[in-house]
Amino acid sequence: MVENALSLQSALEQLAGSDFRIELKRGISGGDINKASLITLNSGRQLFLKENRVELVSMFSSEAAGLRALGSAGNGAAPVPEALAWGTEGRASFLLMEAVEIGQLFSGEDFGKSLAVMHKQARSTCCGFSAENRIGSSIQHNTSMESWHDFFAEKRLGVQWKMAREKGYGDAVSDKAVESLLKGLKNILPEPDEGRPSLLHGDLWGGNWLPGADGRGWLIDPAVYYGHREADIAMTELFGGFPSGFYSGYRNFWPLEPGYSERRDLYNLYHLLNHLNLFGSSWWSGVIGTIRKYS
């Protein structure tokens, strides 16, 4: 891993040798935050490059840390691309990764099991993560806390609601509803199994996994933290996009606790609020409807 490289050129030299050449750099569509490209070197090696403004280099350093954490989850866990280098070049910042070779998913059940393996094998004693990172372009606060419902109330829903109010959404009535909801989380959300929160992908919607040439489901673009594994599963259901057999594969390896379906929308309120803050008022009805449901 080349950290805080002074240029993409120097990073590539350290990774591929001084005689490397970029044979092809092809833009990749699909993201709305970073400029993305697929680079092919003269050796045939393919790398994936993300670029953004220089002041956002911490976004790439934290993403690299998240990928390393996910990649260390152990045998059988869902694979992630290796983060190779991050740094700055002039007025830009970058993150360089191994490219995922696209193929066909062999088994939705195996994909679901691999997520469950990750959740079960990569665990901590506290919720949070070693540093702030990003959920989309929003800062995600990860200060460690022992209690899951306190963490979710303060660092997830509370932060996003404050942002929404600053943008002009809501009123005194909705403030009281949110206050009631946050106070009641301890009666709704269970603590993680055995008191050990799982490492979460954190932004697990259908656009953040890829079918690899090895037949496995690869996870990309994480917003990692340690928390209750139900939060990851809930987001997979928010927009869909996961294959047949995925959920049975997960549950067969590690069943969810009773009552998950009643908690699912509460977990996804975090993502609805984030979409409201990022993309505007079309998300307000979903936000206020969920707040009223649980307050």
Structure description:
The protein is an alpha+beta fold and about 300 residues long. The chain is about 40% helix and about 20% strand. It has two domains: about 100 residues, Phosphorylase Kinase, domain 1 (2-Layer Sandwich), CATH 3.30.200.20; about 190 residues, Aminoglycoside phosphotransferase (APH), C-terminal lobe (Aminoglycoside 3'-phosphotransferase, Chain: A, domain 2, Alpha-Beta Complex). It is globular and about 65 Å long. The chain starts with a strand and ends with a helix.
Spatially, the strands of the biggest sheet line up as 1-5-6-4-3-2
**What's the pLDDT, averaged over the residues?**
95
Shape: globular
Number of strands: 12
Q: Per CATH, which architecture of the largest domain? A: Alpha-Beta Complex
Radius of gyration: 20 Å
Can you tell me the CATH superfamily of the largest domain? Aminoglycoside phosphotransferase (APH), C-terminal lobe
User: Structural class per helix/strand content?
Assistant: alpha+beta
Number of helices: 9
Task: Catalogue the unreliable spans.
Answer: none
Number of separate structural domains: 2
Under CATH, the topology of the largest domain is which?
Aminoglycoside 3'-phosphotransferase, Chain: A, domain 2
> For the record, what CATH class of the largest domain applies?
Alpha Beta
**Could you give the order of the helices and strands?**
EHEEEHEEHEEHHEEEEHHHH
CA-CA gap between termini? 46 Å
Helical percent range? 40-55%
